Amino acid sequence: MERVAGPHFSIVLPAYNESENIAGVLKNLKLALNQASIFSEIIVVDNGSTDDTPKILNDLKREIGELRVLRIEKNIGCGNGIIKGLDIACGDILCFMDADGQVRSGDLISVYHQLKDNSLDLCKGTRIKRFFNVQREVVSKIYNFLFRILFDSRFQDINGSPKIFTRRFYQEAHLTSKDWFLDAEIMIKAKRGKYAIGDFPIVYLERQGGNSKVSVMTMLEFLKNMFYWKFLLWKK
Predict the structure, then answer these.
(1) Cys-Cys crosslink for 41: which of 7, 49, 88, 149, Cβ 3.0 to 4.6 Å?
(2) Number of structural domains, the chain?
(3) What does the pLDDT look like over 102-156, one tens digit per residue?
């Protein structure tokens, strides 16, 4: 089926119980995109929220014409929500990032221009300053170190966002991870497919409201998936 013409840039924001952040994130994002004159759509995937996120999004649709909302009744993983959002996106350039306000809208625009100006297939943010607690910072460094060793990667921040890529890359990558490993799967497949990859330094802000969805179990899930992809799926 021929794809209907639509916005040049599609941004997918997975949101699970982000009632304290979502309105500010969307308004800042709309302002930044308008100032940069980027024709875009914003797709918020309400990933089974049980707070006021659905009501807030419904109200915001009257204020933000670029906003589309996809409701998933049962949250089976962040990756699943992102893929569902990307599947309905109309843009030639696609993106996803968290809806918690930790990525500055200006940094999103910078990563977008980095991809465009250098004709990249994929470009992502690399967090040069992060407001993590000490435990999470240590775990993150260990995880990224292991990933670089296992997959011979030069990138310092595998889970860094936003991640922006061409529609061609997305269609050819056939992403499958329904959990937090989606970021890593993208980097693995981009390297394996010899796509042009870039990154851009960003500041990762402190969360202003709500709770982080990353836990110790998330980290264990990362490790399990890394070894699974390395030793069972890497050469398929």
Answers:
(1) 7
(2) 1
(3) 999 999 999 999 999 999 999 999 988 665 556 667 777 788 888 899 988 888 8
